[in-house]
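>> Question from a student workshop board

For tomorrow's exercise we were told to take the sequence and the ligand below, predict the bound structure, and bring the output to class. My setup keeps failing. Could a helper post the expected result so I can at least see what it should look like? The ligand is nicotinamide-adenine-dinucleotide.
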Amino acid sequence: QVTDTLAKESPSSPSYDWFQTDSLVTIVIYTKQKDINLDSVIVDHRDDSFRAETVIKDYSYLVHVALSHEIQEDFSVLVVENVGKIEIVLKKKENTSWKRLGHPQENHNSIIPKKDTGLFYRKCQLVSKEDVTHDTKLFCLMLPPSTHLQVPVGQHVYLKLPITGTEIVKPYTPVSDSLFSEFKEPVLPNNIYIYFLIKIYPAGFFTPELDHLQIGDYVSVSNPEGNFIISQLQELEDLFLLAAGTGFTPMVKVLNYALTNIPSLRKVKLMFFNKTEDDIIWRSQLEKLAFKDKRFEVEFVLSAPTSEWSGKQGYISPALLSEFLKRSSDTSKVLICLCGPTPFTEQGMKMLHDLNFSKDEIHSFTA
Ligand code: FAD
Ligand code: NAD
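>> Workshop helper replied:
Here is what the output should look like for this input. Compare the format with yours to find the bug.
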């Protein structure tokens, strides 16, 4: 009975095959889906273990083997989007003929609900750390060459560090290195750097430890998670972003993606809530972007401003929202994204419902 239900709900069964030349081994995954891209597959090669996880809707299809022969560290991943085919090209260490790909490992060649796959981690090296505000830093981590992983727009990962003998895990949302970085879909392969904007809380459990890492030290990074679906942006005309503090982080890629890839887009407005001017992340970049791209507007709202502040003040409120959320036409397709401290997000959601925005027009980022 359970198997029957699964079979009905899970996507039509993916499969894989492999072939070789003297120097290469190519693994081909047939997803039988059209909406597959370079974000859909996560590949890790460690010692002799090779693991490729293909995310298809709420399911993961795994190719997981102990390879029969040694391969070189780097490999390439190609996706033929219109037929949903993924090719992973491995380089043999020695030009011998392989009789088999390898021994099956856990969940090899099976499709399982994504929530049951568990978080898979790889160790990434801290490459740089830059001050952004008095307490927020831009961290750059480098993926190992034996990993292919791209974090989809709107998704987060978990970072893991051993702290006093226990492994501690917290979620963080990757950003681009700046608001002006090139953003093309599909993202080029070999994208080995992941950037994070992280606020350090002196009394916090995890962030002081992260801040103590030296360049060259390692942090474990999980596979991506999250329920933002990029197709929510298709044919969008008005995009409203309501961010508080580091709740700005998911907005970075959403903003970049929408401005670059959504031709129907007329307007993107960010309302950015912070305590003081000193807390505003990437303020000058936001102002420059608004100057450069007339579709984009930014408004800062401070909850603890100094007496010199002449802009908007206070917490999120119906008055602020009804003034800010003006559609470019009565029928325009709208999306409102919301992210920040839990009370901010909860109050904001309620206010948006009271303003008659429908569920489909609102996305809140949470864990
Ligand atoms: P914590 O130990 O959790 O403490 C945080 C603050 O609360 C400190 O000031 C601490 O003193 C105070 N505090 C702790 N416990 C109590 C208590 N019982 N009573 C009163 N005060 C208390 N953060 C980012 O900076 N960047 C991101 O991109 C980002 N992305 C996220 C994505 C998701 C999906 C989620 C859910 C969260 C994200 N966060 C992000 C937040 C992040 O996961 C951590 O919560 C944050 O870094 C704090 O971790 P910490 O262990 O250092 O602090
Ligand atoms: P902060 O304490 O600096 O506050 C920023 C602003 O949030 C304030 O100026 C205020 O406008 C608003 N705010 C704070 N408390 C509020 C309350 N009780 N009611 C209404 N509005 C309130 O924020 P921070 O320290 O940068 O924290 C950011 C939060 O965003 C964290 O809780 C973090 O976990 C969360 N976050 C979540 C995600 C996600 O779920 N995807 C991603 C990034 C950050």
